[in-house]
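Sample A.
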Amino acid sequence: MQLIPLSKLDQSEDNVCKRPNSEFEERLSFDIEARGVLQNLIVAKAKKRGRFEVIGGGKRMRAMHRIVERGAMDADFEIPCLVIDRREHNASEVSLAENFQRLQMTPAEECQAFQHFIKEDGDTAAVAKRFGLTQRFVDGRLRLANLAGPIFEALAASDITLDIAKAYAATDQHEVQLRVFEQMRHAWNPSADAIRRMIADGSLRGNDPIALLVGEDTYVAAGGKIERDLFSEAADDRWIDVEIAHQLAGAKMEAEAERVAAETGLAWINPVAATNSWSARSELGLNPVRLPPAPLSEEARTRIDEIDARMDDINAIFEDESAQEEDGVDLDKLEVEYDTLSNERDDLNNPVRELPEEWHGEAGRFLILTNKGEMVLESDYYSEKRLSFEQDEDGNITATSEDMPTSGSTGSSAARPSTPEAVAPGGEKPISAKLFDELSVQRRNILAASLLGDPGLALDYAIFALCDDRSYESKGTSLKAGKPQDPAYGDIPQSAAEGILAQAEDALNKTWHEPKEVAQRFLAFRELDDETKAAWLSYVVAVSLEAKKGYNSEYHPIHAVLGSILDVDVAAMWRPTSENLFDRINKTSCLAALIDIGGSELAARYAASKKAELSKTCEKLFSGDAIVEEDIKERALAWLPEAMKFDFAQDPGGEDDTPVEPDDDTDLADANGEPTFEEPEDVDEEAAVDA
């Protein structure tokens, strides 16, 4: 250890921490001025006689130079230094070991330093051991060091965070990294998850149900390739050859579907390589079969009576303090027994509903996957016909069927289906005009917020809207007339989209607004760089979007095209709540939404609830705050009413006048807890929807 004057110290080229951090060094200088140098520097003799190069402690040296500049320290102030011999020590390794755990070392510098040692050593395991790190950590930093040039430069300049860089490094293909990087350059506050989703487009995750069903060995044996993500668990590995995985999964599920169809005698078993059958049954136009309530057997009734008697005995003990003091009374054990009996009683009171044997040839079920990749049958039955069952006082069941009308059928307007997006969950009842108008504004804002991230699409849309003058019909945008006139005002429920739009506006470069003359403002705008102009273009087009088409409860089909191209994740920005949906539709529609995510069993749990309680329950379920089965929670978090979807394949429908669904609190449930789906007698006071 030697005391060396500050004036004789220089920065070493072997110091791996090369980027100055002015803010940190300023704070550090005041700390050294107050407390002195608490830790020695590591130096080596320089080629120039009498001078030394700082290998470890460059920021402390620069902080002391700041003190000298302030006049609070003499330039020849002596600093305690550990002098090492370059012939005996690797200067860069010493610098890395001295700097690695420090806040001021950037991820880019870590990457370059590890890359340096790997070139010398060639063994990531040995380098990891030397620095007390995991090999996966070192491999991850090396993956970052091999990022495409523009992305690594952005990391080194702190233009992107370490998490964002890791998201780009989920693949080692530079062309994929650069494609996504270019797409996300103008996105407002891009997230690592969003980047990973774009990187993974066209691949499967290692924990995808299809991947779990097929198995890695089978997939690889068939020629499939796997790309490992070094920054995540094995579940985040990417299966690149999606077609191979789907072919293997399809063959396996089709074989199982044939076996189950023969075993059950149903008309069909439709295999779907997904965790739900929503899309499949929608495309096929199938109707859910509402099964009749199953009668209680004599054995079940007897067992329920026994359970009730035992539960009464346990309750009596809980209420009688003297009984609790008797020897051998274990209250914890009694509580467990009580809960077990209660669950058994619920199961007995809700026997499995079976499809009558004579209707097996008219109905079928979907074979789907669990999150663990297991093949299971969905509990609900579906049919091309509308099957309904009625039960008389003696328990006799009468079944009726009704063929679905074709698109070419004639009849009254009441028999024709209304516009899909203007229909409440669970059937063809229209929602109120006021609710549709509010949902249309919220849906438009979500599309607008998503359009911010794709200025190329915004430009294409803008040019089309300006140039297409073949007719006077709406183009779905108000580019020719500024911001649109929204159909709903006041305290409309808000979503994340409104905040994104507001932040985007605040971030715009408005310096070109300063000139008073329009010509000068135009010239000032032309001086902006392309990135700034692109941000303005995206914002102006985004806020021009109209909420709906004309005066009817109908969306513009161009918006569905835009939403499909953008792959808008509506569920990530908007969730149904009591305020924005469930208080505004009747109880039957709320129960129908529950059937969509959990089948008849889930709806039956809450069928006896009052409308206000059911609305709050639905809000918790669809926000993911309720304690339910994992697969139901997953479907709930993705569920959307038709009025909030961007479905390009969806036919907007005609313009028939249909009755309006009431915003009422009518309790529509029969004695068995099932929704009756009958038309309510009272009518909403709001205007009817043109569907």
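Sample B.
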Amino acid sequence: MLNNGKLISKISYFYLDVFFSGFEGKKFRMDKHRFVIYQLLPRLFGNTKSVNVPNGNIDQNGCGKFNDISKEALISIAGLGATHVWYTGVIEHATCSDFSKYGIAADSPDVVKGQAGSPYAIKDYYDVAPDLAVDVNNRMAEFENLITRTHAAGLKVIIDLVPNHVARNYNSDAAPKGIEPFGKKDNKKVSFAKDNNYYYLPGTTFKPPLQISNEKPWKETPARATGNDCFSPTPSVNDWYETVKLNYGVDYPGDTQVDFEPEPDTWKKMLDIVLYWSQKGVDGFRCDMAGMVPVEFWRWMIGEVRSKFPEMLFIAEIYEADRYQDYIFKGGFDFLYDKVVLYDALRDVMEGKVPASGLTDCWQKTDGLHHFLLYFLENHDEQRLSSDFFMTVGHKAIPGMTVAATMFNNPLLIYFGQELGERGMDEEGFSGRDGRTTIFDYWSLKLIQNWRSNGDWTGADLPKAAAELRSFYQKLLTIIHQKPAFYKGRFYDLMWVNRHESFCHDKIYAFMRYEGGHCFLILANFSDKQQSYKLKIPLDAMDTCGMEKELFYNGIDLLGFNRPLQFPAAVALNGGIGGRLEPYTASIYELKGYVLD
């Protein structure tokens, strides 16, 4: 459909008969109306080895394979409520594992982070990571089979596009005939030229911050700029030193006027890459650090791709709220990360740093853009909800997760293990004990293995707390798929009228969702204590949401955490509805009105 002159990928709901419901094997049918993206790293997701050696290599710690993401695993993911799977780390990236016997050039550990390497240091845009294949020589076919299995489960496939930078040792041996490698025709004697693929630092030699290898030291003369816009031959360990910045025609080191006509060479090379994967059957791209690439490129490239693949989905990672509109309406993206507005605000509320009422200011900052924003509380960059650095246990995130899922109709991201309470507190190697699950190391996650069980992915071996948390996530996602108010309805914030002493606006956030005469009240308690409240619903809200002030209303908490509500509308208008919320819970009340006899 067209929205503000922009082509939006349409979502159709899926009819799935899957054998999954709270791990009870109950057959159910779910109609899916909201985008719910489930992110997973195949390297970790399918790893069945339980020996975790810090800094361990692939032989010691093992590695998940494409084939480990089985039909049963995908049915379980679909049963949770996902509509898409984002496979992170699919494209071949630099690694300390040696696959030279398969004709793949070995990498220098000097420019690899961790034993497994960063999924965002792409080594060959036209190949998949060899360590994810059972048969390395058949690796692309194994990935293509995964695409087929994912589609058969009623799910769509998203992979990463990493357009801003490549691995220092970028070396495509799988590119189709006629595709020139990056840098082949570059003029290395100048720092910038429009059709150079890289930025150079003439007269310098690159010096990695960690010189690990004596056998395969990394040599690079002249030095090239590092991926995070570091124009120095000696980047620090905190820079993206394992990567090289790609040149899209912007003269960062000089003062040349921007010139995008005709299109710079890097634009054309990146378009070929996107078309290559589109032809493989992927359904969308999560575009890494999209904000570091000119919006003019995105407008051109997305337009070219959509002329051949009209439904292709593009999601931008961007961290500047004042650029949201440009990347939506000029760049043509379907969705953008909303880290710096909703995520940051929710985290502050969840940690007690700001009052819950501050969420009103948060959503107002992006008013009119909500349908384009991807909401999340976890991904590979952020600390785990259950980590010691955040909420310590997963159930304390229930109010925040409920608010993120129910405020608007936009897509939602779930990071694998989030729904189980994965803590991210291992010290894996290059990734220290930082509250994140490593993307750099070979490792395994016990809770994922518990969920896998004997290969049927029923979760039979999950601890009770993990099973209960996953049941909450499934219930929440089912509600937003099946209740029209949460996929095509409207939002009404109740905080403006509940600043009185009988409502703890520091710890409780309240709003309504409505559509077609159906009205829902959402209450979230961000406190570690039970909260009593009196909630007012003003006449404007009743008129807007379709409530009638002459009726008596009751509501059952669809999440099952708190007691039902019963109240005359007149009480809600005047003194306020009385109720209690248990600690760290949220309620979704479906309000139904009737006339008292």
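B remarks: Confidence is low (pLDDT under 50) at residues 1-28. The longest helix spans residues 464-482.
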